[in-house]
Amino acid sequence: xxxxxxxxxxxxxxxxxxxxxxxxxxxxxxxxxxxxxxxxxxxxxxxxxxxxxxxxxxxxxxxxxxxxxxxxxxxxxxxxxxxxxxxxxxxxxxxxxxxxxxxxxxxxxxxxxxxxxxxxxxxxxxxxxxxxxxxxxxxxxxxxxxxxxxxxxxxxxxxxxxxxxxxxxxxxxxxxxxxxxxxxxxxxxxxxxxxxxxxxxxxxxxxxxxxxxxxxxxxxxxxxxxxxxxxxxxxxxxxxxxxxxxxxxxxxxxxxxxxxxxxxxxxxxxxxxxxxxxxxxxxxxxxxxxxxxxxxxxxxxxxxxxxxxxxxxxxxxxxxxxx
Length: 323
Fold this sequence. Notes:
By secondary structure, the protein is α/β, with parallel strands linked by helices. It is built from 14 helices and 8 strands. The chain has an 8-stranded mixed β-sheet with strand order 1-2-4-3-5-6-7-8, with helices on both faces.
């Protein structure tokens, strides 16, 4: 695949790797990845968005890939939502852009919805891919997850500094093969499983023989090599630090007005067991100008699993609202 080379901009104390396609004068669309991903996760979307006349921009986010970020236990707070959104505002400054449409998948989705709250003057529109707008909960989210799922639930497990990253860095190619798999079952079938099989303890599955892992491998050899090379370069610490800020993000968002005024598009995947389509129910209360779609027969990795369907929905909405 002919993926562009990055250029680098200084923003918010980091040097951010930015990948671009499309006309410089086009309406900018910034695509933000999640865990354990890269700008490369949007490799099928960049040319489609650019081909529709938009300026397609995808950064390696803080802690990831060619961008990297601060290391060490003391650096954990430097991965909170204030830093992640300020990174993007600074990236726009460096690119000479007043505003952009922000699209985000997985953790990137959390960031783009928060971008619309924290920097509303920089956001023309929002596209959530799998990740809905999630209002602030009544209690510390890590405490809530611990109560609901126990210590082995992957987000709770990730709170122990240095532990999960050491596991994944031992064999990065194997880690990538573990994460990037097509959904092995329909959401309805997952819901029928006994409770002890639904605690999202992915790291326990990681220890099992690879031949027992559910679902088909999603990446071809070239894609696997790209991810492996960049995660060998950056490690997993930065990306996992995003999870270590759930509590801090909850604390610093107290009193924040939860209203997204920008036009918004929500694209769910029918079989994403973590970011389930029904999580979008009631979003209109917080995101009044909202259009919703669900991609059938699709698990968590929507950009790679159903690229044509995702591209078609994104391009259609972008042309209608910003063309």
